[in-house]
Structures are given as structure tokens and as C-alpha cells.
Amino acid sequence: MFTSFCLGIAIFGLFGCENDRNTDVICKNNPELCEDLHRDSWCKFEKADLIRHRYALKKTEQHTGKQLYQQLIMLEKYSKCIELASGVQHIINTHRTLDRRKAFAVSTQNLAQLQEHIKDNPDVYLAFYRWIRFNEHAAFELINAAFKRDQIQEVEILQQLAVHYLKVDANVSKDIYRKMFAAISSPDPIDPDDTDISMSLSDEFNPDWLLGLANVHQQQQHFAKVYLLTKINLTITEKSASDEQLLALLNQDKLLAETFNAQAKTIATSIMSGHITQSQLAALF
């Protein structure tokens, strides 16, 4: 049965396949990677990501916790997408509907098997998965202990820890956001005499961090920071918010709001270009 074989791919690894990222070629030369998936064009991105990752696992002898975590996430995305697609009825080509329903059923079984396989694994990524999916206390304790030993560098995990610590200790949460920005930034090769060093940001930056940090400042009653961070986020995401509610953070001081609006636009532009200066970064905290 393919479900067991798929789990074998994710855990034990196979060898001897062609190095080609084209999913059609991968499926042609490695049909066992694709035979449980639906055949039409629905969920093409989720399907392609899953195939390529299965292919990468097949070429790897020893799989890391991060690889298994990624496989879990991709399988979840595929399963969710194909579940929705399976509800689309084809009057003429009824086999398409049946094919998607079968793919959804198998994907949920594969996911359950892989979740069962990693349930006692102490790897940080797999403990993180169990914490965020099942709210497993033992998994959180493992993550938190690693964090206190300064062994957590992955920004995805740090972001969840920042949210957790906001309920416990806002200062720790703020320090985690500092660590997240530090993890994705590096000095630009510019004039060494420049006193305001420019930092290059990686594509791991997430605008939601700004709102998370704004929540920290909100709890600490630093309302001007809340205003600034919210404005930066709105500029980057091109979303809108109530000007009246935002002005309330500044006691209706419109002149001060204009100053922060200009600063927010400058910082947002820098972030969107993939760069931020040290003084701009400091302004966030």
C-alpha cells in the first residue's frame, strides 16, 4: 500500500534517481513519489512542492528533523487544498472528482502516519511541530529549554516563542524579536566610515513581526512605538486601519503623527528594499 511506502520515503530514504526539479520528469522516473497524488491541475503548487520535497528526501540517506518538519507542512498544505478541490463536482468527467477524493483520503492517512512516527522525537523542529499543532506541553518544555540554552536560531520557532512570552514576560518577548532581526540581518559592504551602518535583510523577514513587536510595546504602554510599528506594517502590506484609533495612541497629536508617518514610510521603504540601518532598527525597539 502506498501510504506505508510514502512513509518509508520520508523516513528511510531511497537512492538512484535523476537530478531534475521538473515534477513531470520526477514523476515519470520515480512514479512511486506521485502515484498517491491526484492527476489534474488543481493544487498544482502544493502538489509540485510536495513532489520536489519527496524527491529531495529520496536522494538523502539521513533525514534531518527540519526535513521531516518541512514534509509535514507540505503534506498538510496539499491535504487541505485537495480537500477543498475534492468538493468540486464534475458532471462529465466524474473520475476527476473521485481521483481527488482518493488523493485526499490517502494524504490524511500519510499525514497521520508521519505524525505518529515523530511523536517522541526530541529534534527541535519536530518538537516545535508537536507544540504548535497539538499544544503538547512536553514538546514546549523541550523547545523552551533549548531556547534558554541559546540553541534556537530559527526565526519561525523564535516567532512563536515571542508570542508565548508576551503572556509571561514582555521584556523576554522583546529580546526575542531583537534576536529575530539579528538572525536575518548582516552588515552591508558600504563605507566603513559610515556611522549608521546599513544592514541587509534576508527574505525571512515577515511583516507580522512588526505587529508582534507592537503588541509588546502596547503591553508596556509605549504607545508611540505601537503607532510607528503599525504604520510601518500598513505601508509594507498596503493594508488600512482606522486613523482615529491610531491617533488615539498619540493623544490626537496630528503633528506628532505626521512625524511618525514620515519615519514609518522611510523605514518601510528601507525594509522593502531589503535593507535597514542600525538607527532605523533601534527605532523599532
Describe this structure in words.
It is a single chain. With 285 residues, this protein is mostly helical. It has 2 domains: 2-118, no CATH class; 153-284, Serine Threonine Protein Phosphatase 5, Tetratricopeptide repeat, CATH 1.25.40. It is 65% helix and 4% strand. It contains 14 helices and 3 strands. It has helices at 2-11, 23-29, 44-58, 65-85, 94-117, 124-134, 137-148, 155-166, 170-183, 208-219, 223-237, 243-248, 254-272, 278-284; strands at 185-187, 198-201, 275-277. The protein has a 3-stranded antiparallel β-sheet. Helix 3 (44-58) packs antiparallel against helix 4 and helix 10 (208-219) runs antiparallel to helix 11 (223-237). The radius of gyration is 23 Å and the shape is globular.
Largest sheet geometry: 3 strands, antiparallel
Low-confidence stretches: 1-6, 8-20
Q: How are the strands of the largest sheet arranged?
A: 1-2-3
Assign the CATH class of the largest domain.
Answer: Mainly Alpha
Portion in helices = 55-70%
Total discrete domains: 2
Q: Would you give the CATH topology of the largest domain?
A: Serine Threonine Protein Phosphatase 5, Tetratricopeptide repeat
Tally of individual helices: 14
CATH-level-2 architecture of the largest domain: Alpha Horseshoe
Q: Report the end-to-end length measured between terminal Cα atoms.
A: 54 Å
Secondary-structure-based class equals mainly alpha
**What's the rounded overall pLDDT mean?**
88
Give the DSSP E fraction (strand runs of 2 or more residues).
Answer: under 5%
